[in-house]
């Protein structure tokens, strides 16, 4: 909370339906496009590796550029970028298994 500048009152103002519903829809879009990127000849290891690489080298680095310009903390960057690296790795693993 501190790294983002949030307090309890500000967090209570959020619309949970929009936050979680929107996150779910955006995750479906990510997954749909990522499975197209992985292609038909995929397995769990390839999917997880590709997800890790995409999360680390595309998403995290793009976030890093934004964080530098916004002058956000390294701690917040590591939390948020780490979340996306793990998410893309898991998405890639699941899509690699799914036939």
* Number of contiguous helices: 4
**Helical proportion, percent range:** over 70%
How many structural domains in the coordinates?
1
Estimate the strand proportion.
under 5%
Low-pLDDT parts are none
Mean pLDDT: 93
Q: Structural class, please?
A: mainly alpha
Return the string of H and E elements.
HHHH
The profile of the biggest β sheet is:
none
Number of strands: 0
Compute the gyration radius: what is it?
16 Å
Apparent shape: globular
| N- and C-termini, Cα separation | 40 Å
Plain-language structure description:
- The chain is mainly α and 99 residues long.
- It has one domain.
- The chain is built from four helices and no strands.
- Helix 2 crosses helix 4.
- The protein is globular and about 50 Å long.
- The protein starts with 7 loop residues before the first helix and ends with a helix.
- The mean pLDDT is 93.
Element layout with pairings:
Blueprint: H1 8-12, H2 16-38, H3 44-70, H4 74-97
Helix pairs in contact: 2-4, 3-4
Notable characteristics:
80% helix; globular; 99 residues; mainly alpha
Q: Summary?
A:
80% of the residues lie in helices and 0% in strands.
């Amino acid at each position: 909370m501190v790294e983002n500048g949030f307090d309890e009152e500000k967090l209570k103002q959020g619309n949970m339906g929009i936050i979680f519903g929107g996150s779910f829809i955006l995750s479906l879009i990510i997954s749909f496009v990522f499975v197209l990127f992985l292609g038909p000849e995929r397995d769990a290891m390839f999917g997880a590796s590709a997800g890790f690489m995409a999360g680390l080298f595309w998403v995290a680095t793009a976030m890093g550029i934004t964080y530098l310009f916004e002058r956000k903390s390294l701690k917040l960057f590591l939390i948020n970028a780490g979340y996306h690296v793990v998410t893309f790795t898991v998405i890639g693993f699941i899509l690699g298994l799914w036939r």
